[in-house]
């Protein structure tokens, strides 16, 4: 399937990826307000968009860096709180 998708003309593939990617991102934004995996869905949407668009790849990379920084901060905070016991 991947080989066939790569042979799809770019003028067909790019709008399809654009629409599907943004639908997934918007669904993730909606899921931030209602129960559901909002942030994971937003990441997935940008991963889809990044397959065809360099700007989406930059946003995806920024999101990954930010998430890693938040996780590292939370880990340091957790370690500090555990050491006080």
Coarse morphology:
elongated
**Through-space gap between termini:** 55 Å
The biggest beta sheet, please?
none
Strand content is under 5%
Backbone structural class: mainly alpha
**Which assembly state applies to the chains in this document?**
single chain
Number of helices: 4
Number of strands: 0
Low-confidence stretches: none
What does the average pLDDT come to?
88
Rg, Å, rounded: 17 Å
Elements, N to C (H/E): HHHH
Helix coverage percent: over 70%
Brief summary:
This protein has 85 residues and is mainly alpha-helical. Helices cover 85% and strands 0% of the residues.
Give an overview of the whole structure.
- By secondary structure, the protein is mainly alpha-helical.
- The protein contains 4 helices and no strands.
- The protein has helices at residues 2-6, 10-33, 38-50, 54-83.
- The radius of gyration is 17 Å and the shape is elongated.
- It starts with a helix and ends with a helix.
List keywords for this structure.
single chain, 85 residues, mainly alpha, 4 helices, 85% helix, 0% strand
Topology:
Elements: H1 2-6, H2 10-33, H3 38-50, H4 54-83
């Amino acid at each position: 399937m991947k080989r066939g998708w790569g042979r799809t003309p770019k003028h067909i593939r790019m709008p399809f990826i654009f629409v599907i990617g943004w639908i997934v991102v918007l669904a993730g934004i909606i899921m931030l307000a209602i129960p559901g995996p909002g942030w994971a869905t937003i990441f997935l949407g940008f991963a889809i968009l990044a397959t065809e668009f360099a700007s989406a790849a930059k946003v995806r990379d920024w999101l990954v860096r930010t998430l890693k920084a938040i996780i590292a901060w939370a880990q340091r905070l957790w370690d500090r709180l555990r050491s006080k016991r």
